[in-house]
Amino acid sequence: MRTILFRLIGILEVAGGCYGMILMLYRLLPFRAHDSVVALIGLALYAFVLVAGVLLLENSERGVRWSGWAQLLQLPLIATPVFSWALYCGGYVNVFATLHLPPQLGLAAHFGSQAFVLAVGGPAAAHLGINLLALLSWLALRLR
To answer: What residue ranges are annotated as transmembrane (predicted)?
Structure first.
């Protein structure tokens, strides 16, 4: 069971990391100052996730550690008027709360995708959430 879970996590990391790197390279092409910095950070994060997935598929202990870190990076969803952060590699199942009156809970899911958001500023109505897929993947990686 452990092997199947690790392979599934590794496949999602490799696919999401590769797809994310391609899109970040595409974002780098116009060489705009602000967007290029964010794209370079995204490129480094996706490269890290890709390498972690490859090492996990090779059944490396370093791959298990790096994949744990990669899943923790994908865990939070923060979208506030001051700061926004989200990272998805391979898919997500988000449970989030919209923090305006009245507060609302929401659920969003998508597989075979990637996303990277790092911004100063964000939506007027703040959203805070957690990626359940990343949480379950991180917990599965803790199985020894």
So the answer is: 5-26, 38-57, 69-95, 115-141
